[in-house]
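fwd from M.: "can u put these together and see what the complex looks like"

so here's what she sent:
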Amino acid sequence: MAVLGHKITSRKELQNLGVYKPGKPIEEVKRELGLHRIIKLASNENPLGYSPLAKDALMREMEKITFYPEGTAPVLAEKLAEKLEVASEQILVGNGSDEILHLLTRSYIRPGDEAIMADVTFPRYETNVRIEGGEPVILPLIEGVHDLEGMLAAITDQTRMIFVCNPNNPTGTIVSKMGLKSFIDRVPDHILLVIDEAYFEYVTTEDYLNTVPLVHSYPNLIVLRTFSKIYGLAALRIGYGIMHPTFVQELIKVKEPFNTNRMAQAAALASLEDSGFIEKCKRENDEGRQYISTEVEKMGLSCFPSQGNFVMVKLNRSGDDVFHSLLHKGIIVRSGGVLGLPETIRVSVGTKEENEEFIQALREVMQ
Ligand SMILES: Cc1ncc(COP(=O)(O)O)c(C=O)c1O
């Protein structure tokens, strides 16, 4: 059917904005390539699924989906507050941590404001800043790591927000404990400092700063966490921010009234009870991460040192080509081409078997 044209244009901020390119879904690859068995190692999801306690909670909650959820997820916020040793007024639960990012820029970025971030890092910082008419100030990573000194030097009178992704997606690298503490000390207190810890639970090194306790003494600090990664609830869309209560109150004005759904709230709450599951995921991820890095090095390649549930492999050839070759073998990874590092691929850590299949396939492709 022919569609009529129209004369209505969107805001100028949207004109040159691209659409977020997620990892290819399994269903799409099956359809396109006619493959039956697909291993998806593209979106940093949990290969071990999610806690059985969450499953039970979901089943129980199903009976109640006729009723709207509680708008601010107070029971979950209370539980998180207890676990993190903050006040529940300091927690905002969002439709994924993506939503908290969106709410932050919606509420605090004015046209012309600058927001400092790394290149490369999680792309939603830049997109959200641009949507509000802000100016992303983008600083290259140094050896895959945030250039904190460079970020401080880039502060101007227009700087409104700084994003630090720790561990960084897509490189998996972290900033040192002392380096980050000294950075937090030196960021002027009128600038919002957003530290995105989506992969916090996977970190095993001692040289990592847990920033949540600092929210008490640095009122401009906001920490983001999620249930999408180690908790394995990506599709339910639930994450949270820890911040000064006045920010929570402002963001609540902007959010959708029922931004997180009943199922997500119930599953997240139950997941917090299952520390055994989280420990197991962390342990197996660490083993998988080490296995992938070691095997990649045996092939004469290298990777960024990762503290996340993914590894970025440096190929010295086109990431797009390797991505496509792996795809034809039924393995979906992310090409560094779309992530801003064209000669790399990012592979999420899978189960032991998936990691082995990935390594075998990569070996064949690289030959
Ligand atoms: C660094 C980082 N922050 C935030 C997110 C968004 O996570 P969520 O599913 O909680 O919206 C992701 C997801 O991949 C991520 O990698």
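replying to her w this: The pocket of pyridoxal-5'-phosphate is lined by residues 44, 96-98, 122, 165, 169, 196, 198, 226, 228, 234, 239 (CB under 6 Å).
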